[in-house]
């Protein structure tokens, strides 16, 4: 975990809350030989705000092979749990695989992507493994880490950020108390994998992590980083040209990128040449 905070701060643009709360949560969890329960973090925000990116950075901090490690298990809602008619089979799969993976590594990382596209009820299958049990059938799950990724709550997070901007306040002044209750309530009530979930109702999610919508200045950093990776000159004129191809919200202010940094790679493909 050495240097993790600095790495997040440098490469996860515009996410001061994520940088702080994720670092603190991970450090506290892995420093304990016997935590009281598995660490469960739920990441929320608009698409392209960095939820997947942050998850991969966590995997890289924990395992030498990063997200390619055999101890990192990535579930995607539309790929792994696509059919409403097979909810029981999906639940059985999770209750079979999580014990198997934990027996191989007592500090495994489980990432559930597209939680907002999962059917309600599936994720409750993991409840025993994230609850306050020392062990279940001889297996200790308390050192595991679970991360949920969801677009649910993105509108509430954006509304808070927009109101701060309207009031002339710095987005760095937004704190967890401004947002976390809104996310937990939205996750429980919005259609998706956490709707009416026991793990929400029983307070088994340790922290709801808000990913703020990205402003033009953050988008420009993403563009500069992408150009640098490709060995191209990241001059201001080129960066501005590419940034102007992104759709921003609300239309009258063009404040937040609707797609975050998700489309930057393609935009650089198309517009990333001074000759155009």
Q: What would you say this structure looks like, in words?
A:
- By secondary structure, the chain is an alpha/beta fold.
- The chain has 2 domains: 1-211, Rossmann fold; 216-272.
- The chain is built from 12 helices and 7 strands.
- A 5-stranded parallel beta sheet has the order 2-3-4-1-5.
- Helix 1 packs antiparallel against helix 2 (16-30) and helix 10 crosses helix 11.
**Proportion in β-strands:** 5-15%
> Structural class of the secondary elements?
alpha/beta
The CATH level-2 architecture of the largest domain is identified as 3-Layer(aba) Sandwich
Strand count, sense and barrel status of the largest sheet are: 5 strands, parallel
Please give the share of residues in helix.
40-55%
Number of helices: 12
Number of strands: 7
In CATH, the topology of the largest domain is named Rossmann fold
- Give the neighbour order of strands across the main sheet: 2-3-4-1-5
Average predicted confidence as pLDDT = 94
* Stretches with pLDDT under 50, minimum 5 residues: none
Number of domains: 2
The Cα radius of gyration reads 20 Å
**What overall form do the CA principal axes indicate?**
globular
Give the oligomer, counting copies of the same chain as homo and different chains as hetero.
Answer: single chain
């Amino acid at each position: 975990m050495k240097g993790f905070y600095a790495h997040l701060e440098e490469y996860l643009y515009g996410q001061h809350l994520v940088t702080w709360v994720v670092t603190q949560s991970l450090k506290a969890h892995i420093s304990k030989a016997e935590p009281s329960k598995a660490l469960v973090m739920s990441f929320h925000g608009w698409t392209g705000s960095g939820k997947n990116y942050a998850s991969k950075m966590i995997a890289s901090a924990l395992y030498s092979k990063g997200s390619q490690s055999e101890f990192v298990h990535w579930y995607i809602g539309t790929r792994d749990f696509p059919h409403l008619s097979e909810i029981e089979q999906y639940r059985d799969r999770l209750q079979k695989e999580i014990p198997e993976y934990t027996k191989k590594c007592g500090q495994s990382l489980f990432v559930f992507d597209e939680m907002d596209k999962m059917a309600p009820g599936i994720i409750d299958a993991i409840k025993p493994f994230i609850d306050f049990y020392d062990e279940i059938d001889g297996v200790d799950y308390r050192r595991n880490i679970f991360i949920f990724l969801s677009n649910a709550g993105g509108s509430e997070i954006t509304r808070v950020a927009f109101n701060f901007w309207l009031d002339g306040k710095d987005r760095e002044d937004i704190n967890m108390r401004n947002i976390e209750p809104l996310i937990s309530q939205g996750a429980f009530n919005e259609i998706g994998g956490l709707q009416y979930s026991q793990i929400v109702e029983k307070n088994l999610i340790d922290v709801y992590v808000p990913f703020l919508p990205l402003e033009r200045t953050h988008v420009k950093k993403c563009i500069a980083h992408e150009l640098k990776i490709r060995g191209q000159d990241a001059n201001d004129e080129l960066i501005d040209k590419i940034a102007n191809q992104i759709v921003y919200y609300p239309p009258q202010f063009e404040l937040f990128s609707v797609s975050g940094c998700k489309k930057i790679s393609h935009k650089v493909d198309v517009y990333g040449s001074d000759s155009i």
